[in-house]
Amino acid sequence: ETPFEIYVYLMAFRSKEILDQYLQFFKSFMDTYPSFEGLPDNSDVLPEGVEIVMPPHFNMTFVHFLPGGYLNGHTVRISYLGKTKFNFLDEAKIGEWLTKLHGDKNPKRILDIGTGPGFSAFVLAEMFPESEIIAVDLAAPYIRMARKWQELRNITNIKFYHANAEDLSWLESESFDLINYAYVLHEMPADNAVNIVNEIYRLLTPGGTMNGFEVPFPDSHLERQIMVDQNTWGYSWQEPDGPQGPEPYLEEYEFGTLLTETLAAVGFQNIENIGYSYFESIFLGVK
Question: Which end of the chain has fewer beta carbons closer than 10 Å to its terminal beta carbon, N or C?
């Protein structure tokens, strides 16, 4: 990561008054990165015989100011470099906490949702070398990058797929002992997030565990509102005019998804909300 890349990325968060001009520059810079293109229908990274429906929001309002969002393969590198900025994209910290919370387990099958470039999946593969790991992401370019990285790392117990975690009907119910995700549910409308929680519950074996590295869901209404205001800049993700902030869906997450409440409503037991940082918590639940 070069100093200029750090500057380019962080300047977006300081460009509220001139965001349109900045985003034009950001896009021109992103276009110099590899695009991770594949077949036009993405069948090179889809599970065999599976077609997916892209939720409309995914190509409408983009998080972190990424030009064209995650569907733009030119954004893969800048998202990969997020490992220096977000704690649970750092493999050492992922490994530390997964070991602390789940190191005594012996999962035969693991699902990693929203795998991106594969940070969590690679940690899980090294922690549990005898396990089969399925890693999915809604962005096909990111799956292509993850597969290339997998070859370089010579890790054989992961299968990376382009898939929509709201509908994983191609995967058998109660077939995973551990399901992990990182920074996923706060990047979508509440209805979509709840669909994913329902799929996680369906796919877990009885006694299986969900581990979520996610944005905090504070008990205090005021704390949640402060997080929303700071990260949406006061704009709804449905408002096309005006800067929407780095996390345009955060109001949906804090006041719609209601994560711990939704986990309980779906049927999870032993729910824990472990605070980690201002922008990160760890959520646990057992089926």
Answer: N
Q: Which two tokens stand for residue 131?
A: 């396990």
Residue whose tokens read 């990165």: 33
Residues 66-106 have pLDDT tens digits of: 888 999 999 999 899 888 888 999 999 999 999 999 999 99
231 with 247: CB under 8 angstroms? yes
Beta strands (DSSP E) in 176-279 are: 176-182, 204-214, 269-277
First to last CA, the chain: 40
Q: pLDDT, tens digit, for every residue of 263-284?
A: 999 999 999 999 999 999 999 9
50-60 pLDDT tens trace: 999 999 999 88
Distance CA 60, CA 71 (A): 11
Contacts of 134 (CB under 8 A, 6+ apart): 109, 110, 111, 112, 158, 159, 161, 171, 176
Report how far apart, in Å, the C-alpha atoms of 253 and of each of 3, 187, 191, 223 are. Answer: 33, 8, 10, 13
CA-to-CA distance for 87 and 213, rounded, in angstroms?
Answer: 9
More confident residue, 7 or 158: 158
Give the three-class secondary structure for 212. Answer: strand
Three-class secondary structure of residue 161 per DSSP: strand
Instruction: Give the whole-angstrom CA distance, residue 259 versus residue 265.
Output: 10
**What is the C-alpha to C-alpha distance for residues 104 and 92, in angstroms, rounded to an integer?**
18
